[in-house]
Structures are given as structure tokens and as C-alpha cells.
Specification:
Length: about 375
């Protein structure tokens, strides 16, 4: 069974927080016990869930799931950091753990928050305009940025990647890339950036920028497909990039890239895999396809598994108990590399609590819990 309760610590904190934010509404952390999630030997032993929050609402929040206790903690950032007046900020876009620190990319607040991975206590903040996603290599973090905030501007300036020293939290470099850059991957000293051009639907960008990290310069901008977004690397070193299409006639599609030893892109393969989001675990691509048709919500949503070698579907349905019908708006997917459990985030109506649901490797629902608004990113934490 599940039971909902306000933690004892939260009750004590309420007495202290009133003096910290006299004019602010403070939402204290709540916790929820999920017996089916308990695994005392789990590694990863839990995950952080970043809730995006609707743009303009300043409702980005951070949740934490502890597998060893089976307790799901809601909105832990506000409680861990009572003196941060605006809490986490507006539109949580990405989260990554690196060197025992959790880096949170808060898009519409134009900042990257750095907190302790063990307790979410704030360490530093780095201001990055219209920041999107983050990756790491050595002592540096790399953050993609739209730079501009003008939607529909046909002459919108190019985006950029900012280089941040992970010890001093200072920006130490910037390189121009394509328009509205999204996710990135790093391979053999080269950074690959998916450029979307999403601010201008009449003229999407269609390129991947290649940056040599040693000189921090762009060495290639390769045409792939329009409106690029997600990127992953498989165990063979192939790069997978998702084109979101145009939301009307061109469907979202996965492309597979091979690279040369000098970092440039050797080949581009348009696969038959149509998907809106995906994750790679070992030799499998877990994905869902929920394509928009203009302004209409997706109705024919699929949850499939493909093989990285053949780029073909090998399982038509990875949710086999019919509970996929409970998912209204799939918004994120993550596979636990240890257990092969699949986590699906559901944004519901975008303005109220979403859910995250755990599915067994056999395709049955194990448990589900309410989250903050628009759950968008799962980041596992290891012992």
C-alpha cells in the first residue's frame, strides 16, 4: 500500500522557514512510501526527478526516489534551500550528476544550479542565457544555449555552447553553433550538438555541429534532418539523433550517425524508427511515439523496443498489461541499466501534477506516483 505523510523534519522546518521567507509561499517536502519500489541492495540506489513546470509559473521542482527505503520525496529543493527566495526557478530542462554534484539546467530562469548530489543543498549558480542541456568532459561542463529569446524571428541569432569550469563555476569559453541547439553527446574528444531552429517553423535548422574540445572550435556543421532534439551514443560508438519533424507532414524519426577518427561525421542513416523520445540500454532502444498533428494531441501512442544493430523494431509493445492507456502525455523515458525497469513520465494536462510509472522488464506496471508539474528528466544516483 501507499501512504502519504508530512515528514517530521518538514514540520520542524516550517517553524524555521517562516522567518526566512516572510513574503513567500513555501511548499514543504512531502514523502510517500511505495513498498513495491523497495530494494535494499539497489545500485543505482535512487533517482532525482526534475519537474519542468509550466513556462512562466516558476514551478520547476525536484523530487527524489530512494529505492533502499521505498520512499519518494516531493519538492526537496525548496526544503533543502530555504533561503533561496525563488526556489528552483522557471522551466527545469536538464539534470546530470557529475563528481558528486547535481547540475540543474533551469531554462527560463537562465541559470544552471549546482547542488550536492547527496542532499540537494545549493553550492553555486551559473548564469547562462536560455540554457537547454548539459554534458561533461574532464573538468568542464558544456551547456547548450538558445542565447536569443525571440520566437518566430527569421533572423534569429545562432545558438552557442558555453564551457564552465566545474571547480570554479566560471564560464571560460563560448562557441557559436546552429540555431536553438538542444541535446549533445561527447565522443573521443569531440562534442556533437543537435541544432533545432525551433523558433522558426518555416525555416528549421537541420544540422549537427561538431566541436573539437581541445581547441573549443566548431570544425563541422553537418546537415542531417530538420528540428533535431535528442542525442544518445550506443555501445558501438554510433550516435543516434532524433528529428522531431515538422508536426504536420514529416514525422519524428531517428537517424544513426557514424564518425571519422578526426571527429567529422562519416555517414548519416535515416532509419525506419519513428519516435518522439528514446533511451538506449545495452543493445536495445526503448522508445515511445506520440506525434503531434498540428495543435492536436497524439492519440495513437506506441511503446516499442528496437535493436541498435539492425535499427528495426524487435518488440511492438514493451508495456504488455494494458496500463499504457493510463498514460495521457508521455514526456520522458528512462531505463534502469541494472534492473532493466522502464520509467515513463506523464505530463497529464501540463498544469497540474504528473506521474512517473515503473514498468518491469516483463512489461507490467510495478508502481506509479504523482510528481510535480510536467515531469521531464530522470537522473539515477549510484553508491
Amino acid at each position: 500500500m501507499k501512504r502519504r505523510y508530512i515528514t517530521y523534519i518538514a514540520l520542524i522546518a516550517s517553524l524555521l522557514l517562516s522567518s526566512c521567507r516572510e513574503d513567500e509561499t513555501i511548499i514543504l517536502s512531502e514523502s510517500e512510501s511505495i513498498e513495491k519500489a523497495i530494494d535494499t541492495n539497489a545500485n543505482p540506489y535512487g533517482f532525482y526527478l526534475l519537474n519542468e513546470g509550466n513556462m512562466g509559473s516558476n514551478k520547476a521542482t525536484l523530487d527524489f526516489m530512494d529505492f533502499t527505503t521505498g520512499v519518494y520525496h516531493h519538492n526537496i529543493y525548496a526544503e533543502s534551500n530555504p533561503n533561496v527566495i525563488k526556489e528552483l526557478g522557471d522551466v527545469g530542462n536538464d539534470a546530470k550528476i557529475y563528481d558528486n554534484k547535481l547540475w540543474l539546467v533551469i531554462n527560463a530562469s537562465h541559470k544552471v544550479e549546482i547542488v550536492e548530489a547527496k542532499n540537494a543543498k545549493r553550492i553555486a549558480q551559473v548564469d547562462v542565457p536560455n540554457c537547454r542541456y548539459i554534458v561533461f568532459d574532464g573538468k568542464y561542463a558544456y551547456v547548450s544555449s538558445y542565447v536569443t529569446t525571440i520566437i518566430g524571428d527569421v533572423n534569429a541569432q545562432e545558438g552557442a555552447v558555453f564551457k564552465i569550469d566545474t571547480e570554479t563555476y566560471e564560464i571560460v569559453g563560448e562557441v557559436k553553433v546552429g540555431r536553438q541547439p538542444e541535446e549533445m553527446v561527447i565522443k573521443n574528444g569531440y562534442l556533437y550538438v543537435a541544432n533545432s531552429g525551433g523558433y522558426n517553423s518555416d525555416n528549421y535548422d537541420n544540422t549537427v555541429s561538431v566541436i573539437r574540445l581541445s581547441s573549443f572550435t566548431q570544425i563541422e556543421k553537418k546537415e542531417i534532418a530538420i528540428n533535431l532534439h535528442r542525442m544518445r551514443i550506443d555501445k558501438n560508438g554510433k550516435i543516434w539523433v532524433l528529428s522531431r519533424g515538422d508536426y504536420y507532414t514529416l514525422p519524428p524519426r531517428l537517424y544513426r550517425l557514424e564518425t571519422n577518427s578526426n571527429g567529422t561525421i562519416k555517414s548519416v542513416e535515416a532509419t525506419n524508427l519513428l519516435c518522439s523520445n528514446f533511451d538506449i540500454c545495452e543493445d536495445k532502444i526503448y522508445m515511445y511515439n506520440a506525434p503531434y498533428q498540428g495543435n492536436s494531441m497524439a492519440t495513437n501512442i506506441t511503446y516499442t523496443i528496437a535493436n541498435i544493430e539492425t535499427a528495426e523494431i524487435e518488440e511492438e509493445r514493451f508495456i504488455k498489461d494494458g496500463t499504457e492507456s493510463l498514460i495521457k502525455v508521455p514526456y520522458a523515458i528512462k531505463v534502469n541499466p541494472s534492473t532493466k525497469e522502464v520509467f515513463i513520465c506523464d505530463a497529464k494536462n501540463y498544469v497540474s501534477s504528473g506521474t512517473i510509472t515503473c514498468y518491469s522488464p516483463q512489461g507490467t506496471k510495478r508502481w506509479s506516483v504523482f510528481t510535480g508539474d510536467i515531469p521531464s528528466l530522470v537522473e539515477f544516483i549510484y553508491k
